[in-house]
């Protein structure tokens, strides 16, 4: 791209040094107010009217080339600005996508923590229910007198273990 621009400017600068003007089927070359035909200076041989017409045409061509040059520069600036804006938009899009990923990750983490909390509550309730059932059955068997001293120690150990499970589940909550 740089070489293309350099060649473009070089071509413009070379073409501005000598303007080619066509009049009456002949191609005149104008350089610094001198009119040449086939490489020979014919400024003195031309009439003032012809000379002024050729110089006016050369000036018009020169002005046209300057305008084209300005238009080309404006176009290049616009392309550069558009490229910068496109990069900026792409950067903002990537940033937004990153933010969306971050929010999604946080949401998933929160869901996971909520599920874990619910599971811990469920385990705690289950441990409490098991302890309540075991105590109820122990009291029922003791009231009926169906417990031997060995069975009674087993039941008390079982109730103690269940009590520890409830305490552990409560700590985890």
Attribute tags:
3 helices; 4 strands; 173 residues; alpha+beta; 10% strand; four-stranded antiparallel beta sheet
Write a brief structural summary.
The chain is of the alpha+beta class. The chain has helices spanning 2-17, 48-144, 149-172; strands spanning 19-23, 26-31, 34-37, 40-41.
What would your notes on this structure say?
There is one protein chain. The chain is an alpha+beta fold. 79% of the residues lie in helices and 10% in strands. Helix 2 (48-144) runs antiparallel to helix 3 (149-172). It starts with a helix and ends with a helix.
Helix-strand layout with pairing:
Blueprint: H1 2-17, E1 19-23, E2 26-31, E3 34-37, E4 40-41, H2 48-144, H3 149-172
Antiparallel strand pairs: 1-2, 2-3, 3-4
Helix pairs in contact: 2-3
User: Roughly how many Å is the radius of gyration?
Assistant: 49 Å
User: What amount of the residues lies in strands?
Assistant: 5-15%
What structural category do the secondary elements indicate?
Answer: alpha+beta
The mean pLDDT is 83
Walk across the major sheet and give the strand order. Answer: 1-2-3-4
Which residues form runs of ≥5 with pLDDT under 50? Answer: none
What is the overall silhouette?
A: rod-shaped
Query: How is the main sheet built?
Result: 4 strands, antiparallel
């Amino acid at each position: 791209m740089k070489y293309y621009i350099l060649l473009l400017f070089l071509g413009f600068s070379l073409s501005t040094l000598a303007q080619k003007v066509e009049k009456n089927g002949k191609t005149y070359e104008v350089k610094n107010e001198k009119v040449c035909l086939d490489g020979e200076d014919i400024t003195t041989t031309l009439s003032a009217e012809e000379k002024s017409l050729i110089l006016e045409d050369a000036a018009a061509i020169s002005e046209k080339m300057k305008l084209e040059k300005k238009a080309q520069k404006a176009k290049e600036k616009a392309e550069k600005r558009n490229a910068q804006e496109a990069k900026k938009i792409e950067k903002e899009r990537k940033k937004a996508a990153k933010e969306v990923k971050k929010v999604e990750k946080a949401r998933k983490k929160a869901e996971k923590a909520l599920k874990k909390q619910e599971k811990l509550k469920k385990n705690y309730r289950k441990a409490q229910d098991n302890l309540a059932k075991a105590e109820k059955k122990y009291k029922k068997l003791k009231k009926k007198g169906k417990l031997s001293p060995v069975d009674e120690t087993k039941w008390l150990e079982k109730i103690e273990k269940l009590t520890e499970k409830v305490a552990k589940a409560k700590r985890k909550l």
